[in-house]
Design a protein that fits this description.
The strands form three sheets. Strands 4, 5, 6, 7, 8, 11, 12, 13 and 14 form a nine-stranded mixed β-sheet that branches. The chain has a three-stranded antiparallel β-sheet with strand order 1-3-2. It is an alpha+beta fold. The chain is globular. It contains six helices and 14 strands. It has two domains: 2-62, Structural Genomics Hypothetical 15.5 Kd Protein In mrcA-pckA Intergenic Region, Chain A; 76-295, Pseudouridine synthase.
Length: 296
């Protein structure tokens, strides 16, 4: 896997822990075994990455597991020779990683179709991701040319993505924009946070749909696509997503995960250039919790 570094002055073992979805100890072992090169050369685990460094990393997970196709009931919204739009169910992890190699969306997708291989062995076809307990629409590339075009459009902020979320508290403003950089939480590497330390630009726009006694139903549009962006941003302004088990110290209603749904997705078709737009209804797990707030 080839990675072009997008941060400055971060230890390479910390940087790759996130990028490769591996533990720091496994990344350290890869570095020491010469399976990771920076600009064509071996480095120490204490090496501080620099912007635009080129990292070549072997797929460590190939030593521990192989990607197994699985027959799965996929909710396919659209499919042609270049792209698949799938409506992801609640609780489904998008792609395999160490400790979670089976029953992911990718396992089902490779049983269904051939996919692009730009992202390596364990993330075929994946142009963008959503969390396991976020539901809704994803675009999947079936070949490398389509993948490159879709990824470029995403990077250029031309992909349309609208989410629906139920958040704690009553938001007074009808609309708003959260422009706050997101990076790895310095106290908990598994979490993200609004920070100025090794952070990336993150912009989220929201509009109130309906207000309840102690919660607000909102729609959100992403200008950027940072890890956990909506969850982090809404928690940052004091309105964490309802039922989020990680961000915001609020009551957990059930184990179905955060009330966050990727409701609309739009992009230019990689071959025809036609702009295509898709929508997805709120899932039952979301509607069940939403009803409790409407009835209270």
């Amino acid at each position: 896997m080839k990675i072009i570094v997008d941060l400055e002055n971060v230890r390479i073992d910390n940087y790759l822990t996130d990028k490769l979805n591996l533990s720091r100890s496994k990344v350290s072992k890869m570095i020491k075994d010469g399976k990771i090169l920076v600009n064509g050369k071996s480095v120490k685990t204490s090496y501080l990455v620099r912007l635009n460094d080129i990292i070549d990393a072997e797929e460590y997970v190939e030593e521990e597991m192989s990607l197994k196709p699985e027959k799965m009931d996929l909710d396919i919204v659209y499919e042609d020779n270049d792209v698949i739009v799938v409506n992801k169910e609640n609780g489904v992890v998008v792609h395999p990683a160490v400790g979670n190699k089976d029953h992911t969306l990718v396992n089902g997708l490779i049983y269904h179709s051939k996919l692009s291989d730009i992202n390596g062995t364990f993330r075929p076809g994946i142009v963008h991701r959503i969390d396991a307990y976020t539901t809704g629409l994803l675009m999947i590339a079936k070949n490398n040319k389509a993948h490159e075009i879709l990824a470029h459009e995403l990077e250029e902020k031309k992909t349309y993505r609208k989410y629906i979320a139920l958040v704690w508290g009553v938001i007074k403003e009808d609309t708003g924009t959260i422009d706050a950089p997101i990076g790895r939480d310095i106290n908990d590497r598994k979490k993200m946070s609004v920070t100025d330390i090794n952070a990336k630009e993150a912009v989220t726009h929201f509009r109130v749909i309906e207000r309840y006694k102690n919660a607000t139903l909102i729609e959100l549009q992403l200008e950027t696509g940072r890890t956990h962006q909506i969850r982090v941003h809404m928690n940052y302004i004091g309105h964490p997503v309802v039922n989020d088990p990680v961000y915001g110290k609020r009551k957990i209603i059930d184990n179905s995960g955060q009330c966050l749904h990727a409701a609309e997705l739009g992009f230019s078709h990689p071959t025809t250039g036609e702009f295509m737009k898709f929508s997805s209804e709120l899932p039952e797990c979301f509607l069940k919790i939403l009803k409790e707030f409407k009835d209270s």
